[in-house]
Write a sequence for this structure.
């Protein structure tokens, strides 16, 4: 599994869009033009460009004897920051056809193509790509009420979140649980509040054994964001 991330600073929005809009597909351009603000336009454009970059590297690795992927690698996972200037400077277009699947989850149409998933928040976009079904979520700090925690998680996870010794620790636990749950359900092609989510996400502060038996899980911090990616074993 490889995780790609790109960030476009607010000051660069105009320059990025000027370079990116001529490169994206007509279907994507139509969606971008419907957005009311530049944050959504940047997120949509960077999602397609970053996915294209990831898919091109997947094809290259599949056909090359050399692994030229750079990034932080551990346990078979590569975390790959990509400059937005690199995305717009060497864009080749998507090598596969994207189609909508179960509950709107996008996927590549071609046989033998990799699985992918996309998430974005603010001006940061992440893409996970794998040879097995994959899900990813990125979230920044949010005000999680007790009511939200109770609604979003089972009893054990809600108690674990609320038992934190500080507000900072509570926020971190909430983000870990939220991104894990969303990434898991996206991997499965289910909606966020689906009953098919695992009953328990964490045990003693670690990902539950039930999830780890079924999936590979990567938790990553990026600046003020929490990223969780998950794929089937």
């Amino acid at each position: 599994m490889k995780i790609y991330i790109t960030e476009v600073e607010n000051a660069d929005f105009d320059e990025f869009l000027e370079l990116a809009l001529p490169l994206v597909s007509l279907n994507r351009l139509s969606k971008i033009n419907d957005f009311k603000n530049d944050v959504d336009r940047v997120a949509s454009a960077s999602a397609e460009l970053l996915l294209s970059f990831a898919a091109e590297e997947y094809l290259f690795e599949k056909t090359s004897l050399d692994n030229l992927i750079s990034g932080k690698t551990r346990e078979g996972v590569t975390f790959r920051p990509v400059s937005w200037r690199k995305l717009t400077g060497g864009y080749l277009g998507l090598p596969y056809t994207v189609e909508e699947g179960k509950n709107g989850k996008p996927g590549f149409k071609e046989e033998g193509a990799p699985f992918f998933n996309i998430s974005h928040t603010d001006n940061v976009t992440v893409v996970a790509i794998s040879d097995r079904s994959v899900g990813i979520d990125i979230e920044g700090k949010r005000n999680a009420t007790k009511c939200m925690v109770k609604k979003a998680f089972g009893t054990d996870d809600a108690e674990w979140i609320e038992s934190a010794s500080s507000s900072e620790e509570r926020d971190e636990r909430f983000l870990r649980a939220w991104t894990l749950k969303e990434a898991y359900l996206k991997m499965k092609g289910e909606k966020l509040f689906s009953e098919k989510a695992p009953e328990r996400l964490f045990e003693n502060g670690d990902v539950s054994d039930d999830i780890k038996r079924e999936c590979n899980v990567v938790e990553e911090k990026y600046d003020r964001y929490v990223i969780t990616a998950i794929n089937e074993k």
About this structure: Helices lie at 13-20, 26-34, 38-63, 84-89, 146-152, 155-162, 167-188, 209-214. Residues 65-71 have pLDDT under 50 and may be disordered. The first strand starts at residue 2 and ends at 7.
